[in-house]
Amino acid sequence: MHEYLRQILDYRPACEQEEQDRKLMLQYLELFPDTIGTRQCEIAHMTASSLIFNRDRGKLLMVYHNIYQSWSWTGGHADGETDLLMTAVREAREETGLQAVRPIREEAQSLDILPVWGHFKRGSFVSSHQHLNLTYFLEADEEAELRVKEDENSAVAWIALEELREKVTEREMMPVYGKMIERMLRGIT
Fold first, then answer.
1. Residue 99 dihedral angles phi and psi, to the nearest 5°
2. Which of 29, 44, 61, 111 has the most crowded Cβ, counting Cβ within 10 A?
3. What is the distance between the alpha carbons of residues 160 and 29, in angstroms, rounded to a whole number?
């Protein structure tokens, strides 16, 4: 059994959206067991994201995403990695330059199927598809040195939670971020 299958099976949906997305994710895994963890499955594939909080939980470390032209969480494709927490940590380090980033908890904190509309990446067209995404809560030092990953983002910054709605222009992501921030603030981690 792939580790991400165990992570999805162990995940306890917190709302109807997550129940339905979990059900559909399991169907995708059944249909594409050998390729769902890689981009070879062009219809849908496994991804992992993270919300990186500062110590007092009042700020998120976000990147300005070049494709979406919006402040965004960190994350990316599993690309064969079966432990999605490790994918989320790897992507957080790559996209922010942070070396010291740690999970607040090792369990996924959100489960979502996210549409990705057709776009150009590195000179090639990528057709619309689905990201089967698990999200993790990470923590980092607000004073740590940050670095832009120029092929993916054009800025990295700590953003106060109350400023997030002004900064995130990718409208469909605010409900996703909102449900996770609420979980963090309510202590459901």
1. -105, -35
2. 61
3. 37
| pLDDT per residue as tens digits for the range 31-44 | 999 999 999 999 99
The CA–CA distances, whole Å, from 131 to 1, 44, 75, 147, 187 equal: 20, 6, 11, 26, 27
Cα 87 from Cα 25, distance rounded (Å): 18
63 closest CA partner among 147, 159, 138, 155: 155
Separation between Cα atoms, residue 154 and residue 89, nearest integer Å: 20
The DSSP result for 30-91, as a single string, is: HHSTTTTTSTTSSSEEEEEEEEEE-TTSSEEEEEEETTTTEEE-EEEE-TT-S-HHHHHHHH
Q: Is 107 exposed, middle or buried (0-12, 13-18, 19+ CB in 10 A)?
A: middle
What residue type is 135 in one-letter code?
Answer: T
pLDDT of 188 over the 60 cut: no
If we measure between CA atoms, which residue out of 77, 65, 93, 52 comes closest to residue 153? 65
User: Which DSSP symbol is given to 139?
Assistant: E
Q: Which residue do the tokens 């090792």 mark?
A: 106
* pLDDT value of position 189: 45
pLDDT tens profile 75-101 = 999 999 999 999 999 999 999 999 999
